[in-house]
Amino acid sequence: MWQEFTAQQHLPITNGKLSGQASVWNKPAFQxxxxxxxxxxxxxxxxxxxxxxxxxxxxxxxVEHLSSSEIRRAAxxxxxxxxxxxxxxxxxxxxxxxxxxxxxxxAVQKRxxxxxxxxxxxxxxxxxxxxxxxxxxxQAAQVLTNWFPDLPAANxxxxxxxxxxxxxxxxMNVARYQWLCPADKAAAVWATLSLQLQPTNTADWNLSxxxxxxxxxxxxxxxxxVPQMINFELVGGVNFRxxxxxxxxxxxxxxxxxKLKRRMTLAQIPGVxxxxxxxxxxxxxxxxxxxxxxxxxxxxxxxxxxxxESSTLALIEMTLADQESGAIRCGSIDGPLAQxxxxxxxxxxxxx
Length: 352
What we know:
Layout: H1 2-8, E1 13-14, E2 17-18, H2 28-32, E3 34-37, E4 41-47, H3 51-56, E5 72-77, E6 83-91, E7 95-101, H4 102-114, E8 122-125, E9 130-136, H5 140-144, E10 156-160, E11 163-171, E12 174-182, H6 186-196, E13 198-199, H7 202-211, H8 248-256, E14 262-270, E15 279-282, E16 299-308, E17 311-319, H9 320-325, E18 328-330, E19 339-341
């Protein structure tokens, strides 16, 4: 029914993104009020009396002491500490919900199931049970009170018969919400939201996450990063005081043995066509023996989204030395030159 509705309403969804709408990024409508769809939302439901304990032993963050209102981020890593997925997760009355990129949901759920063994936990794909709306701006809160009389605080969630409403980190003083709406109610909800808020493309929501310095792992970037390489502990994704989980020894060693040498930064890049997982190159590293086609990449684009027809906003992982002294070209050694920008949080070596 929802797919039929989007077709009837001329809401084109391609590669997990809604397109064809007017962009609001850096425009008054972003401040005033916008709404879009997040079709690439994957949801895994973990239920059973040992669900929290099982996930606690698999993820980089505390699950056993998760309160009923908060949301948390976590990495799911290989034994070598490389991220297979980045999760947002929260608790319901009877389960724990894991949100991740739908492009990797099936593979990640299958891998998690390999380690269930005799644990009293059941993992199920509930992605199609909800439609994910993303909305924000000054008018969004008032509109949402029609369904959620009490709105969540930052990094918290509220659930009722209308679904689950999450408030994420504000960006440029704009409140941002994600609403996981039951699929059978989604058409009526979209009809109302799109009348009161400016419909926009999924890209604008992705740009806001990039601006916030929050990275997402997808099919193009699996196993490329230890969590600290993409500042994941700085946005609450790693708890260094919890027990073991796959890759924990590598993640802890990266944190405690000397200063971290690789980090993620924000960048604006002229041109389009840049994608997650592309290499970046320092063409001003002073190494004359490592020139031309033999030059090795110094980092990777973590997430990239087109701002307009001539510019891209991206999160790039590379060494701190390259960030400080390099001329960073993206995609190839002849690619566009990145303008590095400050992140909205401080880069520090912390332990939690």
